[in-house]
Write a structure and sequence with these properties.
221 residues, alpha+beta, Heat Shock Protein 90, five-stranded mixed beta sheet, two-stranded antiparallel sheet, 7 strands, globular
């Protein structure tokens, strides 16, 4: 009898633990989806609140917000969360990024020949936006974005002038934050690429990057 009671207690504890784990994972997925929606909405606000409102930049950010809203809807109500993988020119990806960040101190080297990548282009753009947002928040100076191709890979680099002079005060753990870099890693892994965490760059500053295979496997220089 005692053994049966103990077994029932153990089963009840395991069931509750599984529920908490499941709820925790769902909360993380929801917070990540909200994070990806919150960022373009903030960018739209900043674009339109500028002394000279930039409707073009706001419209470009609106496309990212719509994509994030579709992901959130799929997470809450069910449905496919996969979006089509398609081929896009690296210069087009960088051009769209430059348009979304015209309101900020972000310089983008857009011209990059005819090199192409295959990826979920909307999520790739969101991943790059996360790297730029982190550089603006934690770095100093103008944030510079460029792409390099080498050995069949296109590497999108985001570089700032180094840590900000006054680091932000430590903040309590907030489940709404800290999702950007995980999203970048997921996007890279989903396209057989690699996310390179922020690290000191040669010549100064801090550099983070995401590297994806060049479409067709061609080697660049």
């Amino acid at each position: 009898m005692f053994a049966t009671v103990v077994l029932l207690v153990v089963v009840a504890v395991l069931v509750e633990a599984c529920r908490m784990i499941r709820d925790g994972r769902r909360a993380r997925r929801l917070n990540r989806a909200l994070h990806e929606l919150r960022r373009p909405l903030q960018a739209i606000t900043l674009s339109l609140d500028a002394a000279a409102p930039d409707v073009g930049a706001a419209t470009a950010c609106l496309e990212q917000a719509r994509a994030a809203l579709r992901d959130l809807d799929a997470l809450v109500n069910g449905g496919p969360r996969q979006r089509p993988v398609r081929r896009a020119a690296v210069s087009d990806v960088l051009g769209a990024l430059a348009l979304r960040w015209r309101f900020a101190d972000v310089a983008v080297e857009v011209d990059h020949g005819d090199v192409e990548v295959e990826a979920d282009i909307e999520r790739l753009g969101a991943a790059l936006d996360n790297l730029v947002a982190n550089a603006l928040r934690h770095g100093s100076g103008v944030v510079r974005v460029r792409a390099r191709t080498l050995a069949g890979k296109a590497r999108f680099e985001v570089r700032d002038g180094g840590p900000a002079a006054s680091a932000p005060s430590p903040r309590r753990h907030d489940r709404r934050h800290g999702h950007g870099l995980r999203m970048v890693a997921d996007v890279a892994a989903g396209s057989a690429g690699e996310a390179l965490p922020a690290a000191p760059a040669p010549g100064g500053g801090t550099l983070a990057a995401i590297s994806l295979p060049v479409a067709g496997g061609a080697a660049g220089a």
